[in-house]
Design a protein that fits this description.
Strand content: under 5%
Radius of gyration: 24 Å
Number of helices: 7
Strand order of the largest sheet: 1-2
Low-confidence stretches: none
Largest sheet: 2 strands, antiparallel
Shape: elongated
Distance between the termini: 59 Å
Helix content: 55-70%
Number of domains: 2
Mean pLDDT: 83
Order of helices and strands: HHHHHEHEH
Structural class: mainly alpha
Number of strands: 2
């Protein structure tokens, strides 16, 4: 018969299929963790998190969802070089912006990106440097963001 679909055939939507695959990845990850194979367990963790992200249309299509940011910034915690690259890029961009917007140096230190990097790292580790201060409102904003974004990354 044309168009006949038996009742015993399961029909899964895309989200349901992703949830099923996520569960399989989870079991594979747990089995590899039991065996002590952390490399393979990490790969299956990546797959599990990717299927979890794809199971929800909101997570899949909204670019600023937490799962999309987690994937972009660190590869679900499984890609340390990606996280390091983002951290170095963030520090570099903030230091360049701070040196461009003006960082008032109180001592005889030179100006430029180098002192700005030192200043931002001191700010991010909650050390209050007394040898420099931001010269503009934009510089103050960069310093405030550095206290949040650098440790978060």
């Amino acid at each position: 018969m044309v168009g006949f679909t038996p009742d015993f055939e399961p029909r899964l939507d895309y989200g349901g299929l992703c949830v099923s695959i996520e569960e399989l990845y989870r079991y594979l990850k747990l089995n590899h963790e039991k065996e002590g194979d952390q490399k393979q367990a990490g790969d299956f963790h990546y797959g599990e998190m990717e299927m979890h992200r794809r199971a929800s249309p909101w997570r899949r299509w909204f670019p600023f969802s937490w799962y999309n940011l987690y994937l972009l910034l660190s590869g679900y915690g499984e890609r340390p070089l990606r996280a390091l690259g983002w951290l170095l890029g963030l520090i570099g961009a903030m230091a360049w912006g701070l040196s461009y917007l003006g960082l008032k140096i109180h001592t005889g230190m030179g100006t430029g990106v180098g002192p700005a990097v030192v200043y931002l790292l001191q700010q991010a580790t909650l050390i209050r440097p007394d040898w420099a201060e931001p010269g503009t409102l934009g510089g103050q904003l960069i310093c405030a963001l550095s206290r949040l974004l650098i440790p978060a990354q």
